Amino acid sequence: MTTKIKFLGAAKTVTGSKHLLTHRGKSVLVDCGMFQGVKKWRLVNWEPFPVDLNTIEDIVITHAHIDHTGYLPRFYRYGFTGNIYSTPTTKDLSDIMLVDSAHIQEEDAKFANKKKFSKHTPALPLYTIDDALGVLEMFNTINYGEEKEINKNIKFKYFDAGHIIGSAFAKFELKRENGENIKILFSGDLGRYGEHILNDPEPGDGVDFLICESTYGNRLHTHEDVEPKMAKIINDTYKRGGRVIIPAFAVGRTQEILYHIGQLQKKNLIPLDMKIYMDSPLAIKATRISCDHKGNLNLEIIENSHGKCPIYCSNLHIASTVDESKAINKITEPIILISASGMCEAGRILHHLKLGLPKRANTILFVGYQANATRGRRILNGEKSIKIHGEHVPINAHIEEIDTFSAHADYNEILKWLKTFSKPPKMTFLVHGDPDAIDAMSQKIEEHLGWNTYIPEYEEEIVLDEFL
Ligand SMILES: [Zn+2]
After folding, report:
1. How far is the centre of ligand 1, averaged over its atoms, from the C-alpha of 180 (Å)?
2. Is the full-model pTM beyond 0.70?
3. Please, which residues have CB less than 5 A from ligand 1, an ion?
4. Residue pLDDT, tens place only, 239-295
5. Ligand 1 mean position to 163 CA, how many Å?
6. Domains of the chain with CATH codes
7. How far is CA 52 from CA 20, 82, 179, 210, in A?
8. CA of 118 relative to ligand 1 center, distance in Å
9. 153: CA distance to ligand 1 center in Å?
10. Terminal C-alpha separation, the chain
């Protein structure tokens, strides 16, 4: 009986993470992500799944990002009946994120039908909210460090990956016929060292095989303190009587921004009478979940927060309903406004930009990656006007960027983590990176550590016994 891994996503690309581990005739899927971004990969979401679902026993999820979970409702639609494992925080985040993803699928299909631009009539969603709700019923939660036996020959444990709250890397132990064990570690997405609200990634131990992400395999982050720049932007805008509008991803980035605003308030570095508005239903829920699971956050900041949730800053106002969101438009005093989507492609941020971009007193502050051709990228590139809801909106506001935020380890941080392994794996498979990044990561690992690396292709299957 062989042990194999089949790479069904995130192979030479950064989305669609799905790795099928087969041992002694039983298969476990690690992550079940949706392909996003590049059209060539997005179309794969619509192709028949290349493996018979009846042969997959269970699914182990590393974290709640859609490129690691977003295909689960499609599995439900196909009739998958196994168990799905995640940490408790990942389950709670998935409750909101999978339903949100399904909502987007439904809206996209509706829009395609209205505009009649789909080749299919009627255009159908990849999955529906009912599919998302159905698959969420199949989750089982496993805490960090708790051992879970999937069957008598396959067990695994989660360790904190420090990437987003609840994120994990998963270490499997497989029992062979000869009684020996094979250890395999799936990194999921790896976070950074010395982050404020998240823990450092836990050490990696010694394993026989490693499946490692390489998103930033060719890049280094700067480590400058974000707070002085943030304080200056906020103070300058306050003096002009304007508002600081921050487009931010609802899960992760919004909570980081709130934390830093709270720190600036504590140090008295920004005006304490300046109200902070959080206007994104998903961000509000994600912030609540992060606080419910604050035990997963960095212990030092928990202790310093004296029992309060360290994410919530002072003078924070929450706009849950559409009416509350609209009421923000009427405020005349300077405020800080955080809204989604992070790249200004959809959501309530569009209304705030429409109103805020023409005014010179305001600042639009970008705190996350802006992909090519998105509205966020175009505003950042200095375009003089932009179309929102069919209207041309002139851009007169100040445009600022803090580009030091990232949830992913850069290549030095990945190398730092790999140095915590007690022995070199027999093979390190590099996934979850664009081709340039993944090639660079492979070279770095071979150069600095002398480990063997391999870059799998989509749908490639590797028999691990050959390396033992
Ligand atoms: Zn991720």
Report:
1. 33
2. yes
3. 65, 189
4. 999 999 999 999 999 999 999 999 999 999 999 999 999 999 999 999 999 999 988
5. 7
6. 3-219+407-467 (3.60.15.10), 226-401 (3.40.50.10890)
7. 12, 13, 29, 25
8. 30
9. 29
10. 13
